[in-house]
Specification:
about 0% helix; 30 strands; mainly beta; 1 helix; four-stranded mixed beta sheet
């Protein structure tokens, strides 16, 4: 449901209103998936099968607001949103031993996750003319609360299932941010914007693990706080040399302080200072052709999930556990982008872009060779985030979007985009170079949209496909492939304010397939069995009604 309204007038200040936005949405999702893993020994003989039913059922409630009004000589804007998620994720796993082609039930396990999340944001911004320029004052707040309660049961059969353990994880992330900036417009030739950004981010994390007897087995690193403070002064100048030629140059100094604290002497601090220049050239060759060239130094800070010292089971996949690294350094990179945009007809566009990133202190999730109790199999292989050294990423992006007016089909629009990705980083175990973990070689999407003005309707079809990707673990290489995803929609307007939409997703019932090759004792050793896991989520059909008033 969408609502549009005007803010009430006030007498204390001079106000001039414009249309504002209020919207509310309720969405229910049910996503059942099935998995089957086949485990082979060194002689490629099948020795085990594992099946899993994974059902995710949830409801999202959201509210958005965006209002703006004249306040004195300037404009004040207030925007925000609130999202509440209630979701359950239920897994039923059966493990079979295979001997001589016959399968025998070995173990049954269930896992039920009850997830409650709250996400809110509010931003206030005021802009006003001052002298020959404009001042900007902005402040905001984000909060994300994630409460997860997990119950795991195990047994030789479904009838013999017994409580194994329970786990509760409560996470609260808060983010306070502000900007003070001034844009000075000296002439039509040049303008300068300078100011400072400030940010304080915090995380409160609390984990509680109880075994089947109710005894506390929470590790010492299961409770901690993180605080990150940033101050980033900046200056940006825009130069309009000639008609159609503009250059934007910038310099940003980024100062970051981070502190982690917890019980039993868990402490960690870090400070980083980076000076990041940038330059972006835009050249309009003609009215329909634009060339672009950019050079910039950027910073990628480790996320709180990557810094977290707690061990989280079944992340990023089953039978793995992720351990964060409070000592991570931030990534830095020099990047070059070059491309052009070509306008075709009245509404068509063709874009091309080449990019190259030279990265220092690349952050990767890598295997440690360690194991910890837990997961469906009884033990988890521990992964951790590390700075693995220098790396490079480069590729080409091509986008096209155009109506078929030239062939007499003005209401038909075709679109396509293709990204070719290449990367290389040195493996911390083998010392050999390989692509980034989980990065596909290519991604593409093609489709069309057909408008039917006489019916106030439109329909369309799109097809997405990603290439295979590899993940290099401490003693395992995983190859991941996805079949193509076909989606379709039909939408019609009923009256002036109601829209009815039908959507079909995963219409080809595509499979995700993982091929895992194990090595002993690590990637430098010999092959030590393999596994093939297939996952299906089924077709999805949705009906949506939008009402505006």
């Amino acid at each position: 449901m969408n609502c549009a309204a005007r803010a009430p007038s006030a007498t204390a200040v001079r106000l001039e209103t414009r249309p504002n936005l209020l919207s509310a949405d309720v969405q229910q999702r049910r996503n059942p998936k099935t998995k089957e893993a086949r485990i082979f020994d060194n002689s490629n003989v099948l020795e085990g099968i594992e099946t899993q039913d994974d059902t995710r059922d949830g409801t999202d409630y959201s509210f958005n607001a965006d209002i703006a009004t004249k306040l004195g000589a300037g404009t004040w804007r207030l925007s925000g949103f609130y999202v509440q998620t209630d979701r359950t994720e239920e897994e039923f796993t059966q493990a079979f031993e295979v001997d001589g082609g016959a399968r025998k039930l070995d173990e049954v396990a269930t896992q039920l996750e009850d997830i409650k999340q709250h996400n809110a944001n509010i931003v206030s911004e005021y802009t006003a003319p001052v002298g020959n320029g404009e001042i900007q004052v902005l402040g905001g707040y984000n909060v994300f609360v994630d409460d997860l309660f997990t119950t795991e049961r195990e047994g030789d059969t479904a009838k013999e299932l017994a409580l194994d353990n329970t786990e509760r994880i409560d996470t609260t992330d808060q983010d306070y941010f502000a900007t003070l900036a001034y844009t000075a417009r000296f002439t039509s030739f040049a303008s300068v914007k300078f100011g400072v950004d400030g940010r304080i981010k915090t995380r409160d994390f609390e984990q509680l693990i109880l075994n089947s007897d109710g005894e506390d087995e929470t590790p010492p690193n299961g409770v901690f706080d993180i605080e990150e403070r940033r101050v980033d002064p900046f200056i940006k100048a825009t130069w309009n040399f000639l008609p159609g030629v503009s250059l934007e140059t910038g310099l940003r100094y980024e100062h970051t302080d981070r502190e982690l604290s917890g019980p039993d002497g868990l402490r960690g601090t870090s400070t980083a200072d980076e000076l990041n220049p940038s330059a972006h050239l835009r050249y309009s060759l003609t009215d329909t052709t634009i060339m672009r060239l950019s050079l910039a130094r950027t910073v990628r800070r480790p996320s709180f999930d990557q810094l977290s010292p707690a061990t989280v089971e079944d992340e990023p996949v089953d039978d793995k556990a992720t351990l964060g690294n409070p000592d991570l350094q931030q990534e830095t990179a020099w990047g070059v982008d070059a491309g052009f945009d070509q306008k075709i007809g009245e509404r068509g566009i063709l874009g091309f872009n080449f990019f190259n990133r030279e990265i220092k202190d690349k952050i990767e999730l890598v295997g440690t060779g360690a194991e910890t109790p837990g997961c469906d199999s009884g033990t988890c292989d521990v992964l951790s985030f590390r700075n693995v050294g220098d790396a490079r990423a480069y590729g080409i992006e091509v986008d096209a979007d155009m109506p078929l007016t030239a062939v007499g089909l003005p209401n038909t629009t075709v679109f396509a985009n293709y990204t070719w990705l290449q990367s290389e980083v040195t493996d911390p175990v083998t010392g050999r170079k390989h692509e980034f973990n989980g990065q596909p070689e290519h991604i593409y999407n093609v489709g069309f949209i057909q408008a039917i003005p006489s019916w106030n309707s439109a329909f369309g079809v799109s097809y997405q496909k990603r290439g295979e990707s590899f993940t290099h673990d401490f003693n395992e290489i995983e190859r991941l492939t996805y079949e193509g995803n076909l989606e379709a929609f039909w939408e019609t307007r009923l009256g002036k304010s109601t829209v009815l939409r039908f959507t079909g997703a995963n219409l080809l019932d595509a499979e995700k397939v993982e091929y895992k090759q194990a090595f002993d004792p690590d990637l430098n050793g010999g092959k030590d069995g393999s596994e093939i896991e297939k996952e299906e989520s089924g077709r999805l059909f949705l009906m949506t009604v939008r009402q505006a008033f």
